[in-house]
Structure formats: structure tokens, C-alpha cells
Write a structure and sequence with these properties.
Layout (H helix, E strand, L loop, with lengths): L11 H5 L21 H7 L3 E3 L7 H4 L7 H11 L5 E4 L6 H8 L3 E5 L3 H11 L9 E4 L3 H4 L7 E6 L17 H7 L19 H18 E11 L2 E2 L5 E2 L1 H9 L4 E9 L20 E8 L3
Parallel strand pairs: 1-9, 2-3, 2-5, 3-4, 5-6
Antiparallel strand pairs: 6-10, 7-8, 9-10
Length: about 290
């Protein structure tokens, strides 16, 4: 399509200052990826965004690593159209289902830990004006994915960040230590099936790759996968490039399209390495975007 053909959808005002113009822009009949206008499309493609979680109910607070529904809505809004099917193989307390419902998408989530699966079911059962189908499967993804009998348009998920939740980050009182004092969960489970309990880093990457290769089999040709993940620091101060290692692994099967950064400007800072060693306050996540070849 020529630049002239796009002139009604992408003008200089949109390109130079997409946030100030209240006009949402125009829809293009050739858009078969999502239901966005050209202006809305451009706004999403900025490579970072600050997301602040909404207030959480008590049952949701018990989960130690929940991502914001606004993030879910943004990604689902870009990579799907109304009525499409979304998959989350690491569902947690169901944010992907809640975001899918608000966007008018159907969704299936898989969650190993029964307690979180029950919270997700409760959240999915809440009444909505959008007549969508939402399903929670309480199983290990490595089993459940092979049992699915439908094709999905998009997969959005955030897997365990290796065994990060089980490791002390020392120095000052961490959020995990504060959670422990409040009687909240500081890890997902004690199950041997929980990927977050794998001690060997390479074995963890192997199992994580296995899950996303199974996702590949149920994702439509041309469908997208977004994995929200971080690089992590071990107790002895080494950074494990988890996000980059996973991107490299999955890039052998999927097409790695790009990354989008979820920035957190509401996290309290810890004085971890002071006064002798540099230790970063990590306040961003990588949203790795992959595409299944058509």
C-alpha cells in the first residue's frame, strides 16, 4: 500500500503528537489484525509504556506476581479482533481472562495451583455486558496444552521468572519479605510440577521452551505470542538474561518481532548493594512479541 493510500489514516498530526489529539482516527477496511484505527495502532507501537496495577481484592493480593489488566487490554486490543480466542498457559489469578472479557474476546487460561485457579474462576464468573466464553483449566500446562481442541488467535502470558521468588535479595526489607510478614504468598507453590521450583537454570529454560512449543501447535498461522518476563539476579550477584535467553530459544521456531517495555514508576527503591557494590533496582519487564509464521 502506498503512502498516498494511507493518507486518510496516518497524517502528520497523528505521527507527531498522537497523545494530544482527542480524535481517535479512522478505521481501515484492510485491517485484519485488530479493531484499531491508524492512530490507535501507532500509539500501541511505542516501545514502552508505564502501567500501574489497579487496586487488588484480597484473593488477588495473595498471588505474588500479578500483572495489570490495562496491560492485558492493550495487548489483546492490538493483537486480536472482537470475538477472537486468547490463551494464557500461566493464568495466575485470571487477569488475562478479565482483560479478554472487557475487550469482548473469548479466553482459556491454564493454572497449575488450585488456589489461584479458583480465584480466576471466580473473577471469570462475574457478570459482564460482553457475552464471551471464559474457561479456567486447573492443570500443568505441559499436560493441558496437548488436550486443547481449538485454535487460538493470540497467546498472552507471564511465566515464572525461574526461582526468583524463592531467593533473598538481601540488603533491606524486600517486598517479598513484607508479603511474608503480612501472611501473603511469597512463591507460587511447593509442587514439583511448578516450573518456579526448578533449581537448575538450563533445565528451567528447557521446560519453558517446551511449553511455548506446545502453544505453537494450538496457535493459528500468523498468530502472535507475547511473553512478559524479566532478566533476573541470582543471590551471588550474577544477572541471568532470562528474557534474552528465552527470546533466543523461541526465535528458532517463532519469528521474534520486537520487545515492548512495561515500566513501573510506582515501585519503592531498595538500597541493595550500598555501600560497596552496584545492584540495580529493576523496574521494568520485557514484553517479548513473537509471531507464528503463516
Amino acid at each position: 500500500m502506498s503512502n498516498e493510500d494511507l493518507s486518510d489514516f496516518l497524517d502528520e498530526d497523528i505521527l507527531s503528537d498522537v497523545d494530544e489529539d482527542e480524535n481517535v482516527g479512522n478505521y481501515h477496511d484492510g485491517n485484519d489484525l485488530n479493531d484499531l484505527t491508524g492512530k490507535e495502532w501507532i500509539k500501541f507501537t511505542k516501545s514502552w509504556k508505564i502501567y500501574r496495577p489497579r487496586s487488588r481484592g484480597q484473593s488477588e493480593k495473595d498471588h505474588p506476581a500479578k500483572y495489570p489488566e490495562e496491560l492485558v487490554e492493550d495487548f489483546i486490543g492490538f493483537f486480536t479482533q472482537e470475538g477472537d480466542w486468547v490463551l494464557d498457559p500461566f493464568l495466575g489469578t485470571g487477569s488475562t481472562l478479565v482483560g479478554s472479557r472487557s475487550m469482548g474476546r473469548n479466553a482459556v487460561g491454564i493454572e497449575l495451583t488450585e488456589k489461584y485457579a479458583e480465584v480466576a474462576k471466580e473473577r471469570a464468573s462475574q457478570q459482564s455486558l460482553n457475552p464471551v466464553k471464559l474457561e479456567v483449566i486447573n492443570k500443568d500446562s505441559r499436560v493441558a496444552l496437548s488436550e486443547l481442541d481449538r485454535e487460538f488467535d493470540y497467546c498472552l502470558t507471564s511465566p515464572p521468572y525461574w526461582n526468583m521468588l524463592k531467593k533473598s535479595r538481601g540488603g533491606v526489607e524486600s517486598n517479598q519479605q513484607k508479603r511474608e510478614k503480612e501472611g501473603l504468598d511469597t512463591k507460587y507453590s511447593d509442587s514439583n510440577e511448578d516450573l518456579g521450583n526448578i533449581e537448575d537454570y538450563d533445565a528451567f529454560i528447557d521446560e519453558l521452551e517446551r511449553v511455548f512449543l506446545d502453544v505453537y501447535d494450538v496457535l493459528k498461522d500468523g498468530g502472535y505470542l507475547t511473553v512478559i518476563i524479566q532478566n533476573i539476579r541470582t543471590e551471588d550477584g550474577e544477572m541471568k538474561p532470562l528474557a534474552w535467553d528465552l527470546a533466543s530459544r523461541l526465535g528458532e521456531t517463532y519469528v521474534l518481532k520486537q520487545e515492548k517495555l512495561w515500566l513501573q514508576d510506582d515501585k519503592s527503591l531498595g538500597i541493595w548493594g550500598y555501600p560497596s557494590e552496584y545492584v540495580s533496582n529493576v523496574a521494568h519487564h520485557y514484553c517479548l512479541i513473537f509471531k507464528k509464521p503463516e
